[in-house]
Amino acid sequence: MKVLIVEDEKMIRELLAAYFAITGHDVLTAENGKEAMRKIPLVDLIISGVDMPKMNGLELIAWVREKRDIPIILMSGRPEPKEHQANAFIEKPFNFLKLGHLIEKLTK
């Protein structure tokens, strides 16, 4: 499975990339939604932050939904947005075990 991690916080982006690489997944990363747009055709799952420069996570998800039906997990240190088109939401800081179970559920 190819995973795209879209997150402007470098530490979180690199931590998630390392986790997925260790668990045997191919990983692509992007710092914001604009950068992520060109990588969307290459992936099977997207994990995206909400607040990012250039194009935020909510805008990215809306754009993706017009193009593909793909599992998307939205993550934020704030409460879950009332309206979003992601398949799931996880609050930062998150537990990797919980994230793994969520991904397993979405990709079955």
Q: What is the name of the CATH topology? A: Rossmann fold
Which structural class matches the secondary elements?
A: alpha/beta
Number of strands: 5
CATH architecture: 3-Layer(aba) Sandwich
In short:
The chain is an alpha/beta fold.
Question: How would you describe what is shown here?
Answer:
- The chain is an alpha/beta fold.
- The protein has a single domain, classed as Rossmann fold (3-Layer(aba) Sandwich).
- It has 4 helices and 5 strands, in the order βαβαβαββα.
- A 5-stranded parallel β-sheet has the order 2-1-3-4-5, with helices on both faces.
- Strand 3 (45-49), helix 3 (57-67) and strand 4 form a beta-alpha-beta unit.
- The longest helix has 13 residues, at 10-22.
